[in-house]
Amino acid sequence: MKKSFKIISVVLALVLVIGCFAACQKDDKTKEPQKEVLVMATNAEFPPYEYREGDAVTGIDAEIAQLIADKLGMELKIEDVAFESIIPGVQSGKYDFGMAGMTVTEDRLKDVIFSDSYATGVQVVIIKEDSDIASLDDVAGKKIGVQTNTTGDIYATDDYGEENIVRYENGAVAVQALLNGKVDCVVIDNEPAKSYVAANEGLKILETEYMVEDYAICFAKDNTELKDKVNTALNELIDDGSVQKIIDKYIKA
Amino acid sequence: MIPYLMSISAAFAELADDLRFVFIEKDRYQQIITGFFNTLKITAGALLVGVIIGIFIAAVRTSFDKNKESMKLRGGPGYVLLGILNAVCKVYLTVIRGTPVVVQLMIAYFVIFAASDNGVLVGIFAFGINSGAYVAEIFRAGIMSVENGQFEAGRSLGFSYLQTMRYIIVPQMFKAVLPTLCNEFIALLKETSVAGYVGVIDLTKAGNVIAGRTFNYFIPLFAVAIIYLCMVMLLSWGVSRLERRLRKSDR
């Protein structure tokens, strides 16, 4: 009997102490002013701009966004969604902005507004080492593998015609098709292209770049206020070299 | 009343505008047409391949099940041969029904036909092989569901095993399996929507490509859904007509 009293009193004491701690924490939270949340939409399947490391989204875009949020005194929250859902989500106000290695295009400008450009993406052509494609002119009339709905897909379709484009679900599958000889070349972003060429023997990147594009952050059309704030912060970060530092960290020349 | 009508007409004008932008601009509707015909080609081809494979496998499996006792008694190479064929068919059924069709399609495209760049043909092959497994089991179920007395009657009238099959069992079986077979065809038609994985522009992929270009998901996806629906309705209408014709002899 005595023993059980002891145990019960210890348990009760513990409950009291824990309860006190919990209460203290609550107090702390209310004291500190709540930071406003800035929701960013991205598609974390595009290394090195954004990808998942463990459970968190990281990459060039994620780090730049974090710096911008710090400058604005806001808390950054990253939502990882399908690339196609970014623009509709930003339009509807579900996300404050979209940042996903997104190129400024005419079509996109119909639906959203863009910040200043913070990085440039380069579209290149991967070919087999023994390919007879020596320059961009030779690509005409050849079968071109692309990743569905990427800018590489859109520009190559416009330049070389629908009938020459073979669309795959992702870059790796397109490169596999190139290796099998199902397509003659693959148009894709420079950074993933480098990893694919490094990983597979007998491939090389065509020396002339196919296209240079500007990556920017997109906002809903009526959200010029946030766009201006972000632009100011972004330009400060570009001027003091922080943006370049992040890019250099991920992309080794 | 009038403001209502105006807002409705405004909504229609907007929809017409969207439709024009999504389908007419840059001739994007042509994607849908290409996709429609590719889906049709793959489905029709796979149907044919599937039915041929299905008939063959169902024949092997039921012949073995129905005749193994008598063949075993008689001995000879026939029993062994049919036994081996039966085992091969069983392995085929297990493997094909046990793996997803997308994976089979990718294997066909990147491994088996690595040298072919004709995605539609590879699609016909892959979906046909896949569908064959299901059709085989449907036919087998149909044959097994015909009473054994029908068999015995046929044989006692002097028909051979094959003649009994051809004139007595299969006509009854076909009528019985038609609804299930129609089910399989519908499933096959919709399954071809993963053909986009191997670079084929099928109906689904076409909708996806247009949506990706226009950032309008509502219109292209609904258009694609409606086209699929029409195809399935047409298919089931045809099958139900066939069913009615076959049932005429019932009375």
Short structural description:
Chain A has helices spanning 2-31, 60-72, 83-91, 106-109, 151-160, 171-179, 190-199, 224-239, 242-250; strands at 37-42, 45-46, 50-53, 56-58, 75-80, 97-98, 112-114, 119-128, 144-147, 165-168, 185-189, 203-205, 211-215, 218-220.
Characterization of the model:
The complex is a heterodimer of chains A (253) and B (251). Chain A is built from nine helices and 14 strands. Chain A is an alpha/beta fold. Chain A folds into two domains: 37-118 and 216-250, 3-Layer(aba) Sandwich (D-Maltodextrin-Binding Protein, domain 2); 122-212, Periplasmic binding protein-like II (D-Maltodextrin-Binding Protein, domain 2), CATH 3.40.190. The termini of chain B are far apart. The mean pLDDT of chain B is 90. The A-B interface holds A 84, 87-88, 107-108, 111, 143, 145, 148-149, 153-154, 162, 166-169, 173, 176-177, 180-183 and B 30-31, 110, 114-117, 119, 196-199, 201, 205, 208-209, 211-215, 217.
Classify the helix fraction of chain A into a percent range: 40-55%
Assembly state (oligomeric)? heterodimer
CATH level 3 topology of the largest domain in chain A: D-Maltodextrin-Binding Protein, domain 2
CATH architecture of the largest domain in chain A: 3-Layer(aba) Sandwich
Write out the CATH superfamily name of the domain at 48-203 in chain B. MetI-like
Low-confidence stretches of chain B: none
Structure class of chain A: alpha/beta
For the record, the count of structural domains of chain A works out to: 2
Sheet-strand content of chain A, in percent, reads: 15-25%
**Average of pLDDT of chain B:** 90
Average of the residue pLDDT scores of chain A: 85
The CATH fourth-level homologous superfamily of the largest domain in chain A? Periplasmic binding protein-like II
* Sheet with most strands of chain A: 6 strands, mixed
SSE pattern of chain A: HEEEEHEHEHEEEHEHEHEEEHH
CATH class categorisation of the largest domain in chain A: Alpha Beta
Uncertain residue segments of chain A? 26-31
Question: What is the number of strand segments of chain A?
Answer: 14
Q: What is the total tally of β strands of chain B?
A: 0
